[in-house]
Automatic annotation (TrEMBL):
It comes from Antrihabitans stalagmiti. This is NAD-dependent epimerase/dehydratase family protein. InterPro entries: Epimerase_deHydtase, NAD(P)-bd_dom_sf, NAD(P)-dependent_oxidoreduct. Gene3D superfamilies: NAD(P)-binding Rossmann-like Domain. Residues 5-243 form the NAD-dependent epimerase/dehydratase domain.
Length: 334
């Protein structure tokens, strides 16, 4: 008899690959997935997974989901959204999942996908970041603040329980099935013919400033593997940083997606971030600019040596796969 895994957010960029990895794991017998929109597991060839429409804000729905499972994987989250809406769903919904899992009899393990953003963008943090660095978050970036708040809620909700708690902190996830990074580029919204024209006339390509902060990327299949491993491993519970091998630059990213990078001093990003932090009424989408003000490169030694996780893709390969799938643009700097 294998284990039963409940997954919140199985239809997202990470969820699809995570459920696929769980499907391929012989130790997993059954999977229950829950998110809000209609979805058919058969479209992905899944055999072990059953999908339930439900909202993590609905405590009863969450209780019904987690009570069926030996392991609960919590992925449901609003990543790109307004500060107000994401806060409403992410904090209350995540707390529901944590508390319901602790209260249910059957689950013995909880796997929560946090983020590098939980550490916050602090110039006094070490580079690279290790798992023992406190997850302080940065209040001026809603996503970072909420990820830190969720980690604090996790500690509070699970304190004194027997639950084995695995926390994954991935960097930006990308690849052909995780295109959010490409979609987030402002010029991705340009009409197709305009984008085509920029290929023929490079001078038309948007100029994007690069303050020189190194970036990490991880492939969706590698994150999915880490999640599936956490569901079944005998490695110790705790936090694990997750990132593909190597670093890339913002210049690599903008070049891959058809814009022109221009190097600017690192202090430019710090100034822009400081101005935004004190400006009133900043649109939530602009809060992501804080990410560029300091390095948040992580050390993944613990994931590799303790969990035994090894990414199959480098950051550069992940970027190239995404770029090929989205724009058929050759990435030459890899
Ligand atoms: N993508 C990244 O680069 C990245 C990096 C580090 C960490 N993470 C973390 O990994 C987790 C998964 O991210 P992702 O990229 O897969 O996000 P995503 O693509 O936006 O998917 C979010 C998932 O959550 C579900 N969901 C949202 N609100 C819900 C609600 N109220 N009730 C039930 N389900 C809900 C969505 O389905 P419905 O909308 O249909 O409900 C979807 O299945 C998140 O915690 C995220 O912060 C992501």
């Amino acid at each position: 008899m294998g284990i039963t895994v409940a997954v919140t957010g199985p239809t997202g960029e990470i969820g699809i690959s995570a459920v696929t990895a769980l499907e391929n794991d012989p130790a997993v017998e059954q999977i229950w997935g829950m998110a809000r929109r209609p979805f058919d597991p058969a479209d992905h060839g899944w055999k072990k997974a059953t999908y339930i429409e439900g909202d993590i804000l609905d405590r009863e729905a969450v209780e019904k989901l987690v009570e069926k499972a030996d392991v609960v994987v919590h992925l449901a989250f609003i990543v790109m959204g307004s500060r107000a809406e994401s806060e409403r769903i992410n904090l209350a919904g995540t707390r529901n999942v944590f508390e319901a899992t602790v209260a249910a009899e059957r689950p013995s393990r909880l796997v929560y996908t946090s983020s590098v953003a939980a550490y916050g963008y602090h110039s006094d943090n070490p580079v690279p970041l290790t798992e023992d660095v406190p997850t302080r978050g940065s209040k001026e970036h809603y996503y970072s603040a909420q990820k830190a708040a969720c980690e604090a809620a996790l500690v509070e909700a699970t304190e004194g329980s027997d639950l084995e708690v695995y926390v994954l902190r991935p960097c930006i996830v990308a690849g052909p099935k995780a295109p959010a990074l490409a979609d987030a580029m402002p010029w991705a919204q340009l009409p197709g013919p305009v984008r085509e024209a920029t290929k023929l006339v490079p001078a038309l390509k948007p100029l994007i400033p690069d303050p020189g902060i190194p970036l990490q990327l991880v492939h969706h299949d590698d994150v999915a593997l880490a999640i599936a491993m956490c569901a079944t491993t005998t490695a110790p519970a705790g936090a694990y940083n997750i990132a593909g091998t190597g670093e890339i630059s913002l210049s690599d990213v903008v070049t891959a997606f058809g814009a022109r990078p221009v190097r600017v001093p690192a202090v430019t990003a710090k100034i822009a971030s400081a101005v935004l932090a004190y400006a009133p009424f900043v649109p939530s989408a602009l809060e992501w600019l804080h990410v560029g003000r300091t390095s948040v490169v992580m050390d993944t030694t613990r994931a590799e040596t303790v969990l035994g996780w090894h990414p199959a893709h480098t950051a550069a390969e992940t970027l190239a796969e995404l770029a090929d799938s989205r724009y058929s643009t050759a990435v030459t700097r890899l």
